[in-house]
Design a protein that fits this description.
Number of strands: 0
Number of domains: 1
Largest sheet: none
Helix content: over 70%
Radius of gyration: 19 Å
Order of helices and strands: HHHH
Structural class: mainly alpha
Number of helices: 4
Distance between the termini: 18 Å
Strand content: under 5%
Amino acid sequence: MLKKLANFLNFIIKKSGNFSSILILILIILVSVSVILRYAFSIGFIWLQDLYIWIHAIFILLGLSYTLSSNEHVRIDLIYRFLIEQKKKKINLLGAILFGLPFSLILIFNGYDYFYRSLLLNESSKETGGLPFIFILKFFIFFAGILILLELLKQILNFFKNNV
């Protein structure tokens, strides 16, 4: 049962990482089009600028859990790199419990409030001609918290499964 759950969580996190990598390509295209329109044709669209800012934010938010899952996240490596593998696993467990879980819960609870308030207000861009429905962007803050929490729980379960 736990194996199926872990496989399902791996699937979701891998798909979020794959989607995030596709968004990077879309972002590159949008920024390129925006620059060409602005400097070659003196045309600028606020909605296009909003769109590539949104995509930039979403690819980062979706990529967080995938990066954590791939163990490619940034860490302070002054002492860590010299430790044996068992001590590294214990430090990772402590980091997940003391820092990762509170961070993900803050993202979930505050992100939900942020998203829900925006949804109720039907918030749109402050710029004239900007994108409507900002609650879609704000939803991804909440969703990133859920993905990070799921990845952290998977890592904590794996630690106890392999070390007890």
